[in-house]
Amino acid sequence: MSKKDKKVLVGICGGIACYKAAELVRSLRKQGYSVTCLMTKEAACFITPLTLQHLSGNKVFIDLFKPAENIEPAHISLAEWAGKIVIIPATCHIIAKLAAGLCDDIVSLTVLSSSAPVLICPAMHEKMYKKEVTAKNIVVLKKRGFKFVGPVKGELLNGKKAMGRLENLDIILKRIKSL
Fold this sequence. Notes:
By secondary structure, the protein is α/β, with parallel strands linked by helices. It has one domain (4-151, 165-178): 3-Layer(aba) Sandwich (Rossmann fold). 40% of the residues lie in helices and 21% in strands. The protein contains eight helices and eight strands. The strands form two sheets. A six-stranded parallel beta sheet has the order 3-2-1-4-5-6, sandwiched between helices. Helix 1 (18-30) packs parallel to helix 2 (49-56), helix 3 packs across helix 5 (106-113) and helix 4 crosses helix 7 (132-143).
């Protein structure tokens, strides 16, 4: 595995499964990966950037329009730095934005600026996941080379067992290694 393959951007989107992203970041670090986190503003409603900063050991990027520390915009330098990108949890919102090529947050802008392989880990309510438009967006992204893992059937936020639960973190870690 090359040095670049050990550099992972973790894009975190707004969903209840955000707390599992923290455990993924911790596990990646334990396995020798360098991790930098990107968050949508919605994700910051579920988990704090400070938590992810401590777990990753790196600055967390949220604000698209905050001045970069150097001349080059943060999304460009992050896109070039990344050997792999993981989006966890991937909401139907981020999936739709990526499929349409929309770049209005740090996660979508960085992903669409990068040539690194991308692993999308969907987690959402079954009704959103089963919508025809979501299925079409997933097909579009798969045709463009994006990889997916999950979701699986399991207990959702409302307590019901249904499709839409985030895949097991051990399986996600294996998929990250194989990217």
